TrEMBL record:
It comes from Seohaeicola zhoushanensis. This is Rv2525c-like glycoside hydrolase-like domain-containing protein. Gene3D superfamilies: Glycosidases. Residues 71-254 form the Rv2525c-like glycoside hydrolase-like domain. Keywords: Signal. InterPro entries: GH, Rv2525c-like_Glyco_Hydro-like, TAT_signal. Residues 1-27 form the signal peptide. It comes from the Bacteria. Transmembrane segments: none annotated.
Amino acid sequence: MMPQSLSRRQFAALAASAALAPRAALGASPGDSRIHVIDMANAPFLDRDSVPAGLDGSNACTRPNHRFLETLGNAGIDTVFRYYSDTNNANLNCKNVTRRERDLLHDHGLALAIVYQFEGRAKDRYTGARARQDAAFCLERARVIGQPEGSTTWFGVDSDTGLNADRDVLDYFREVRRIFAGRFRIGLYAAGARCRLVREAGLAEAFWVPEAPAWEGTRAFMNSGDWTLFQNKTDIDQNLLTRGMGQQLHIDTDILNPSAGNSIGAFLKDGSIRTYDKARLRAVAGARHWVKAGKLDIYDEPDGAAQAHACIARMVHVLDHGPKWGLVDIDEDGFAEGWCRSRDLAPLGQMPAWARTDCKPMDI
């Protein structure tokens, strides 16, 4: 279901994408390049801000946002990342996923992936001692919500490399690995340099890179092909998946590396691990291109009027790519914002160096 009112830019986007709309209305197919994995910090309930909920989901998060979840499914989304997060037993905005939410997502046909993140940007937070506390919390949450063994628990180190010493981060993941004792696979969400460090130490199985192109080692790690997931758009609240959905929604979107396997450790209602069609993964990855211009102007038509933009080392979804012009979607709702010059785009394996410019990412 689309929002009742559209901005001028959104109206132009729909017009530019008219030829693609029949495909967008269908379910996912091997050649479908629409995004299919998202992460969201808060639960999809209409009353999540009313009263802080306990870890069992009581007091709030009792009114499911079915319209939003149906919209996700209709747009090709099949997997949602949700959080384990210490909140002193007051589940503010229902950040901690509960059994109630697990069932809601599964009933809408969505696989659930788990990421632990709490105070991820705190200085000196990642130590062996803290890992024991965090791992115990994750194991307890896994027991409560019924997370199946063999699935993946991802850990967010949500900062550039300067805040936490390498030796401490390695100690942290050694302890997590020891305490998990093989029950769950371990994933890391972190800057490229941190992913490289933990990968080479053999302390995690999967690696998720944030949309932070200036963070240390991110370009090198992405271009190496060793990544598993890339969080290619963050804090989306105004595209056609989120706008007008009855609450303040923020989602991030993610793409999988087709060379890294066909699973991220998400699980389905029956407890099985969600796998993905490799042709679909190749279609999604192949349609994502980097912006290599300092500022990429996007026009209502080739040689027309500029109406949007994207910045260097950010990503766009290319819906149609010719020798001179590309039709691009910059907010991952499957509809184009307009046309850009093809010479200003680079394929996924060629992330350009981030550079400070006067370009500011658009609110999406």
